[in-house]
Design goal:
By secondary structure, the protein is an alpha+beta fold. Helices cover about 50% and strands about 10% of the residues. The protein is built from 9 helices and 5 strands; from the N terminus they run H-E-E-H-E-H-H-H-H-H-H-E-E-H. The protein has helices spanning about 5-25, 70-85, 105-120, 125-130, 135-140, 145-155, 160-165, 170-185, 205-220, and strands at about 50-55, 60-65, 90-95, 190-195, 195-200. It has a 5-stranded mixed β-sheet, with helices on both faces.
Length: about 220
């Protein structure tokens, strides 16, 4: 055990440094939808991104979300409805934007749990579990037993899940999404971009999001 101790310390320091840097770079945030820009320029975020739907769809819906944000939980249901309605014409990309440590004390570890699940090819299954059970775990003191149980339910290797949740790959992915958040000036969750155009506060509603998607589809239609 002693011979592995230096390596463990190095990994732990790296994770702390990455998360600390991300926290320093983040803009002021709220758990209400809000964006300051309609540009898609800037860092690409974690690669490969988490995509649900047709990867070759003409229109991309990019969401910046926090698993502990109640509004995000509500919109997770709405986005699933939208996915069903638009079918192969749409792909959805999810970006991590944990509002940590305030107002959401478990937001960062929830993001890590989703990313750790993603390393076993189960990001979206954990995404759905976290939102479906948001009220239960967000009120818990110790969320790890609950997250490990969710991992078991979706068929993950729970030992690997526990190790990778605190690993450097997960930390780096959350950090890269944080760089994209910072570059785009995103200040609240959930925030949505459709082909790089932000859903603004005046239009923020499920129907407003549908309207923006339809507008993008018309713009991408063949003459």
């Amino acid at each position: 055990m002693k011979r592995f101790l230096p390596l463990v310390i190095i990994v732990a320091v790296l994770i702390v440094a990455v998360v600390a840097t991300w926290l320093l770079l983040r803009p002021a945030r709220t758990d209400q939808s809000s964006t300051n820009t309609s540009s898609s320029e800037g860092p690409s975020g974690a690669e490969p991104p988490h995509i649900r739907g047709n990867p070759n769809a003409k229109v991309t819906l990019e969401e910046f979300g926090d698993f502990e944000c109640p509004v995000c939980g509500t919109y997770a249901v709405e986005v699933k409805k939208i996915e069903a309605e638009f079918g192969d014409r749409l792909r959805v990309v999810f970006r991590e934007y944990p509002l940590y440590p305030t107002p959401h004390k478990h937001a960062l570890i929830a993001a890590q749990a989703a990313e750790a699940a993603g390393l076993q090819g189960r990001f979206w299954e954990m995404h759905d579990k976290l939102y479906e059970n948001q009220k239960a775990w967000s009120e818990a003191t110790d969320v790890m037993p609950m997250f490990i149980d969710y991992a078991r339910q979706i068929g993950l290797d729970t030992d690997r899940f526990g190790r990778e949740l605190n690993g450097e790959i997960v930390a780096a992915r959350v950090f890269q999404d944080g760089r994209r958040v910072h570059a785009l000036g995103v200040t609240g969750t959930p925030s949505f971009f459709v082909d790089g155009k932000a859903l603004d506060a005046a239009s923020f509603s499920p129907d407003g999001l549908r309207a923006l998607l339809n507008q993008a589809l018309r713009g991408n239609s063949s003459p």
